[in-house]
Amino acid sequence: MASVFGAKVGGSTPRRPARGRGSSLREWRWRDRIVLLAAWAAGLMLCVVAGAIVLYMAVRGIEYLRPKLLIERPQVSLTQNGSGGFLDPLLGTLLLTAIGMAIATPLAVCTALWIVEYGRPTALARLVESSVEVVAGTPDIVIAIFGLAVFELGFLGPLSSSAPNGLVVGRSFIAAGAMMSLIALPPLFVATRDGLQAVPQHMREAAFSLGKTRIATIRRVLLPSVRPNIATGATLGISRIIGDTAIVVLLLGNTLRLEGQGQVPGWSILRGTGSSLTSYVFYNSPAGEGRAPQKAYAAAFLLLAFVVALNWLVGRIGGSRASGGMSGPMLAP
Amino acid sequence: MLDWLRRPWSDRRAERLLGAAALLPCIGVAAMIAFVAVQAWPTFAHNGLSWLGPGGNVDTQLGRMVTEPHPTAADYHLRAWPLLYGTLLITGIALILALPTALLSSIFIVEFAPKAVRRVMIPVVRLLAAVPSVLYGLLGALVLAPFVHDNIISASEIASHARKVQLTGEGVGLTAVVLALMITPIMVALISDALSGVPNSWREGAAALGVHKLRATLAVSLRAIRPAIVAATALACARALGEAVMVELVSGGRAYAPNLAEGPVALLEPARSLASAIISNNEELFGAPAVKSSLYAFALLLLFSAVALSVAAYLIKLPLRKYQVKG
Q1: How many helices (H) and strands (E) does chain A have?
Q2: Which of B13, B128, B131 is most worth mutating to test chain A (most A CB atoms within 10 A of its CB)?
Q3: Closest chain B CA to residue A327
Q4: Is the pTM for the entire model greater than 0.90?
Q5: What's B262's domain CATH number?
């Protein structure tokens, strides 16, 4: 704004900006002053709320989080002392994140590459883009219940646990992880697409003039240059997966411990049920069955620590670009 | 096999492979609508459009279905209005609270915040958007609800409500406040991005006409990004409608329809939303076909509203592209 009032008038030293009419707060009308005050109040309120949440959870976390909680397995118990730690939910969160990202990352990167680099016919490209947008806008609970309908299908039985009578239940790490990939897809896709669009056209032209094919350009030029974008998107996707509750509650069976299904080691865990940190918090909250608020606070603190760390990581990776936009892939669309 | 992968790919094969991957999200969305609609069909077939209407308590209606492994047409009886009403009420109040907060704080972040404050604000907004909903729910249920119960509800209100419904502190008003807190950062991020995308020359034009910064913001920038504001509200609304876990934890978990005519007390009464009804009945998805079909019907409504809202947001933002204002 200073450039408006401070017109340069010759000389090497720019003149001090002349104060225009209304540039002093004292000349503002009362209504405007109140709006300005309200804007400050709203902005600072967000800071205070975020600070309060982090501080409160930190106090509770330090109060209740003990190292042995991290390595003890949970137990069904009536007292808070007897209910063990949350090793299994922690492993469940890690496993879900791994499965979800393993599916979402290649899918999102391929989709973004096709849209930006090929993208013909145009109508199809637009359809793909808007369907990612629809996925981004769909509530997680709807995605969860959709996953249940899919994995209940008889022929997908080998991928999930089944009831004692042989009925396919459709609840397993594979089922939950597959649906988690839908949650992580939009931020990954948007980050990659925006990164690809930001690569200057002359880099592609240089590669083509050296006789490279499109796919070789993608592999040798484009993918290396959008790596930070993919990393940002992946971090956001991970923080979404970690924070999701509905899919875990509906699709992972919500059993406290990892319960394998079948005999094959490793695969039996993927087919089996379990819980994650979020569903552990939910289970121990007043709405769940565990009702152990101390355990809930401890697990929630761990969860918040993960989210804060991932958030910080996004800021680090984003680096210089972080000042550009705030929403970006964060909210996808 | 490995050799086939290692050899340089032809462009045509690469395009086909990438295109096939790109089709998957489309197929996913189509499958989502199809699967949910098929599962929801029985309840609509048996109830007709009166399914959406009022009549009776949803909780008891769902409870009656649980014991029926082979439901007849009569067992599908359900009137979902209390849930719809609860969803709309909570979302509506949350949006009314969130919109002005989001507008004011976006203006603050983009136009007025000193550089140091702005550098803090951006991670703060990101963090608030990233906090898991179960954590908001936990804080709402364990910290805010007891506070409301102890300090805001009077003993006479509890006594006068005792016959209708128990006032525990968890209720519509509290849920709406927490929900507003959850959707405000989304709106702030979208609105402040649009606001900072307004061409500087427009601001300078306003300043040249002699208005001060706030007036210029309100009259020029905010007016220019009106479509982005509506679009941000639509997206936030989609988030709010589908919020399950937090609402289940904080809203009191009873399909009770608060009567707004009673005045502010109604905000202390419990309610239940479509999404939270799904999560609280998730154990009955097996073995009780009527409950299952009803829950899928709730999901179908949520899915349709989410699709409609994102399409609306897209259409509303179209005119912004004409001026190359990023939205």
Answers
A1: 16, 0
A2: B131
A3: B189
A4: no
A5: 1.10.3720.10
